[in-house]
Design a protein that fits this description.
By secondary structure, the chain is of the alpha+beta class. It has a single domain, classed as Peroxisomal Thiolase, Chain A, domain 1 (3-Layer(aba) Sandwich). The chain contains 7 helices and 10 strands.
């Protein structure tokens, strides 16, 4: 509503932790394909800096101290079925496939530069005015660019970083793990007919998708399966195209 969307237009939120924004885009594509909508504003936001701590005091507390639980770890990163946090599942895969620390550092350094460069025209920066944040006892910092990727990332600099989430034969270094940023992203998803009528040039075309489950202790392997299942040879042609801009 603050973006000027009429109150009559329906909206809903998806709480899936990881990939909620991607699921929102798929939901938009489904709605367009079945004819429920022509244009959908979809996306997601993550505010890791505002994740609270919780006190388990539903039925009161006895005399003495009680523990404050970090919901970023307990609710966001921890998988209760495997008892592992996300970084540990990555290390499970590194051990399973024999991926060394050196290989992980080299991969992280190789993809850092293209990410810093961003799209044609220069690095990714905030489209609106720079925002300032302040913390108690610290100076105010002006934010005018995305937090990730970091500058100065090389294989040599990564080699000196700490090991992984735990001591392992193939630890997952910090550079190959997701950060904890605070950022929103959104895109307009529309049918090809709507894009043509509105004079919009699509930046991407959705041709297919699939969602699969994998063992919780190695959840990172899901992206391997998705890449194979949704390869161009396996995508069936659709009579109705869906565009994303």
């Amino acid at each position: 509503m603050r973006a000027g969307i009429p109150v009559e237009k329906p909206a809903y939120g998806i709480n899936q932790a990881c990939l909620s924004g991607m699921q929102a885009i798929l939901a938009a594509a489904r709605a367009i394909r079945v004819g429920e909508a022509e244009v959908v504003l979809a996306g997601g936001m993550e505010s890791m800096s505002r994740v609270p701590f919780a006190l388990d005091t539903r039925w009161g507390a006895r005399m003495g101290n009680i523990e404050a639980v970090d919901l970023m770890s307990r609710d966001g990163f921890l998988d209760p079925l495997s008892g592992k946090i996300m970084g540990e599942t990555a290390e499970t895969l590194a051990q399973q496939y024999g991926i060394s620390r050196e290989e992980q550092d080299a991969y992280a350094a190789a993809i850092a530069e293209p990410l810093r460069s961003g799209p044609p025209g220069g690095p990714v920066s905030r489209r609106d005015r720079p925002r300032a944040k302040s913390r108690a006892g610290k100076k105010t910092a002006t934010i005018d660019a995305d937090e990730h990727p970091r500058d100065g990332v090389t294989a040599a600099s990564l080699a000196s970083s700490s090991a992984g989430v735990r001591e392992a034969a193939a630890p997952s270094p910090p550079a190959t793990r997701a950060g904890s940023p605070t950022a929103p992203r959104r895109c307009s998803v529309m049918s090809a007919d709507a894009a043509k009528r509105l004079g919009v040039t699509p930046t991407a075309r959705i041709v297919g998708w699939r969602v699969d489950g994998v063992p919780r202790r190695s959840w990172g392997s899901a992206r391997f399966r998705r890449s194979a299942i949704c390869s161009p040879r396996r995508v069936s042609p659709s009579t109705r195209s869906t565009s994303s801009s």
